[in-house]
Amino acid sequence: MATTTWQPRGLLAAILMVGLTTSVAAKSGDVYFENFADGPGGWVANRHEPLLVWDGVAYCFGPWYLDSHHAYPGKGCLHMLMWLLTKTPGEKPFMLPNRFIDQRHSTNLTDARLSVRLRGDIDLQGAQLLLLAQGRTQGTTANLVLSGQPFKITRDWSEQTVTLAPDPGQWTCLGARETMKHTYGCADVAAVLKDVNVDIIFVLFPLKIVPVGEAQDPDKLRPGQDYPGEPSYQVWQKYLPKGLVMFDWVKIVYAR
User: Fold this and answer.
1) Residue 145 has pLDDT above 70, yes or no
2) CA separation for the pair 85, 91 (Å, rounded)
3) What is the predicted pLDDT for the residue at 231?
4) 129/212: higher pLDDT
5) Is the separation of the CB atoms in 84 and 44 below 8 Å?
């Protein structure tokens, strides 16, 4: 179990980080730590919304956007609680500053240990709180959820740690719905973890999608919302997670 003890790296440590290729090289023993004392630090809520931070705690509450990019024949829909860009900072004011990028932390998360202090009150409806790592690789953008190491949400604060080992048995590639296969796909777990160059996301997955009424060819439609040229169907909200998840801090300890 991780503790809150953390010794920040100074400016010199950032300057000495070298070896930029496709990703920023990890310095042995490097630590990323966000305690939200000075705002979101680049973390974004839901799909593209400002993350509510109150007294140094990040609040994630529903209803959440229904992300159907990975619906059948992918592994299914998900909710995004909060996410952090890892290489290219966002353009909207509430996405800045991004302390992960500004402090030049590595996108090589191989064998890194990610810890959180969290609590919540939520009806998961069968979903789990998981970490998602998203990275562009040759030919596609892969979305991998760490399905083998779910976080537990309790009403009391708890500190929990997951390890981002390149073990395919610990990860689930989400794939893509038919109309998104040109953007999303699967890639080697080790290759993605070596350069998580898009973002990391705390997600609720999998979701139970139940149409309201009869949906003709639901696998060919988008559940929950309309997109231009892509008709959708309504879903029952009562089968989706609802509640609140609070994050006190997020820490990444890079592999030595």
Assistant:
1) yes
2) 11
3) 72
4) 129
5) yes
Mean pLDDT of the chain, nearest integer: 87
pLDDT digits (tens, 9 = 90+) for 34-43: 999 999 999 9
Helices (H) and strands (E) in the chain, counts: 3, 16
Element (H, E) at 185: strand 184-185
- Separation CA 255–CA 90 (nearest Å): 27
Give, as one character, the DSSP assignment of residue 103: T
pLDDT for res 10: 41
What gap in Å lies between CA 196 and CA 108, rounded to an integer? 6
Query: CA–CA separation, 197 vs 19, rounded Å?
Result: 16
Helix or strand (DSSP H, E) at 81:
strand 79-85
Paired tokens of 236: 């029952």
CB atoms within 10 A of CB 178: 11
